[in-house]
Design a protein that fits this description.
575 residues, Diaminopimelate Epimerase, Chain A, domain 1, alpha/beta, inorganic pyrophosphatase (n-terminal core), seven-stranded mixed β-sheet
């Protein structure tokens, strides 16, 4: 009898001739060759380029529309000593975009100031109330907007009447019109849908602008430009790209792969401080999950609960004591955020169980929920129930919150069917922000579910566990895992493969620990074994000594300087 959590296991069946061709051309093993074919790399040169992920393979930054105009406008500011302000968003992408641009512009003699909207008082992006505060602090000659602005038509028009030039560096989708009389860098608006930089988030685009600036000045023989190593900002690019759930393909893969190495060796005191409060060691390899679960939430906490200038000041500071003080404040805020999130999660889950279990799309509103945290809860609900979710708190007279989606459902397209009910909204296919009147909640909920149902053409997909490859226990060894390391970094659109293991036997009964977790051990070769861990699955323990099938992820476990294979159990069933 099977006790599988998932209704159906499917194993990929790539064309064996293509697998053999890649195996021979690249001199790799059959497992890696099979995975590459499954990812669409049938051509050996493309597969080699994917595995190598060289910085030299990045496209010319000036291939992105309007980057050259942005560089020219920044150079004008440099020549004329103009006042520059960089306005970011309060999430990790916005924080790192702002930090990157300010740090590079400072190297060329400019003294830009950072400005961040206050989430609870001023809302998202280029709101008029945020601009009022910006002007009270001093009107800039040039405003660079990072991670918002694509849909700020009226706000940009207002800025132009005040004599402020505007550069927008953003990756959010446009709804109808885009701002005029400004420089808009947004591949989703301006560039080919096949462009390798299409899915760069704002910090990736900011890197491209910085690269373009350095390149242009080097071509002119500027001595300072030859001293600037723009690749030293890739630590910031990795932070923002992973935290914003960007697909780790094409240029994103290159930037994040090198950015993670840069992050591990970053000289920034702010990064050192962030590592320290996150329980990480400088110099040790950094994984995307470290950003997702340790670094990113602490950077985000300030913008969710207070003022997002704090992490920017931390990342820009060259004073280790100042940086550590800021990092400790972020850590305290993150713990506060976790407690608020826990309470909302419990209430939200109860609300779903009460009357939305059968809905194709989940919409929840509670005026007592903190709107700065509801996005995290939406993400957890989305993963838990495997359907798109929108969770809203309330600010003033409006319900305000965030939505998260599942693969195959584009939230931007879904919300276009609800546009008439919304005061404002924006985002990208997997994550959106929405604002509407609480009185419209029931109508919005109905229309949202209808739009989701329509996009699914009749119903939610059956939950299927996709296996990349069937392994025997004997194949689980260090040589295989070392070869699979070439696929790193894992993340969006480059998921860590799940392997099936046939004929596995537990050497001893599972050992339970913590809240519903357990460890287990299987034999791989006579006298050799590997350990695994199952998170939150202790309510269904596999039998000891009997042949079973496992669905697992494989990774290195490093402890006291020693490295060993560790399995992460996704599911199991009897053979």
């Amino acid at each position: 009898m099977s006790t599988s959590v998932t209704a159906q296991w499917n194993v990929a069946e790539p064309d064996q001739a293509q697998v053999d061709s890649l195996k021979n051309a690249l001199s790799v093993g059959p497992v890696l060759a099979s995975l590459l074919v499954q990812m669409g790399y049938e051509d050996a040169d493309q597969a080699r380029q994917f595995l190598e992920a060289r910085l030299a393979d990045l496209d010319d930054p000036f291939a992105i529309k309007h980057v050259r105009e942005a560089v020219e406008r920044i150079r004008q500011a440099m020549r004329e000593g103009e006042s520059v302000c960089v306005m970011g968003d309060y999430d990790v992408d916005g924080v790192t975009s702002t930090t990157l641009l300010i740090s590079v512009l400072r190297l060329f003699g400019l003294d830009p100031r950072a400005f961040m909207p206050l989430r609870l008082e001023e809302g998202y992006g280029l709101s008029r109330v945020a601009l009022k505060r910006l002007f009270a602090e001093g009107r800039p000659d040039l405003l660079i907007v990072a991670d918002s602005g694509t849909n700020s038509v009226e706000e940009v028009a207002f800025l132009r009447t005040q004599g402020v030039d505007v550069i927008i560096i953003d990756h959010h989708r446009s709804k109808e019109k885009t701002p005029e009389d400004c420089i808009l860098i947004n591949p989703h608006v301006n560039d080919s849908q096949e462009a390798p930089w299409l899915h760069l988030c704002s910090v990736g685009l900011a890197f491209k602008v910085a690269h373009g600036l350095v390149k242009a000045l080097r071509e002119e023989g500027d001595p300072q430009a030859h001293e600037v190593r723009v690749k030293d900002t890739l630590d910031l690019v990795a932070l923002g790209t992973v935290a914003d759930l960007m697909p780790l393909q094409k240029e994103n893969r290159i930037l994040v792969k090198h950015g993670l190495d840069c992050l591990a060796k970053s000289p920034r005191p702010g990064i050192h401080a962030l590592f320290r409060v996150s329980g990480m060691e400088l110099g040790q390899p950094v994984l995307p999950m470290d950003i997702s679960y340790k670094l990113g939430p602490r950077i985000n906490a300030s913008g969710r609960l207070a003022d997002a200038l704090l992490p920017i000041e931390m990342l820009l500071s060259e004073d280790s004591q100042v940086s550590f003080k800021a990092a400790k404040e972020l850590d305290v805020m993150n713990r506060e955020r976790q407690e608020i999130e826990r309470q909302i999660w419990e209430e939200a889950q109860a609300a779903v169980e009460a009357d939305q279990l059968e809905e194709p799309g989940i919409v929840l509103h509670n005026p007592n929920w903190h709107s700065g945290v509801v996005g995290i809860v939406a993400g957890k609900l989305c993963r838990h129930y495997q359907r798109p979710c929108i969770v809203l708190g309330q600010e003033g007279a409006f319900a305000k919150g965030s939505g998260r989606s599942v693969p195959g459902i584009n939230l931007v397209e879904v919300l276009q069917h609800c546009d008439g009910l919304l005061e404002s909204w924006g985002g990208h296919p997997m994550a959106v922000g929405v604002v509407f009147k609480p009185a419209d909640y029931d109508v919005f909920r109905e229309r949202f579910s209808e739009a989701v149902k329509h996009s699914l053409e009749g119903g939610l997909p059956e939950k299927i566990l996709s296996l990349a490859y069937w392994l025997s226990p004997e194949q689980v060894d260090a040589a295989l895992l070392e070869e699979l390391d070439r696929l790193h970094p894992f993340g969006e659109k480059n998921a860590q493969p799940i392997f099936g293991i046939r004929g596995a036997r537990l050497l001893s009964p599972p050992k339970c620990f913590g809240r519903n977790h357990y460890r287990f051990q299987i034999e791989t070769q006579p006298g050799q074994s590997v350990w695994g861990v199952a998170w939150g699955k202790a309510d269904a323990l596999p039998p000891c000594g009997k042949p079973i099938e496992l669905a697992v992820k494989m990774a290195w476990n490093v402890w006291n300087g020693r490295r060993s294979i560790q399995l992460e159990l996704i599911d199991w069933r009897c053979s």
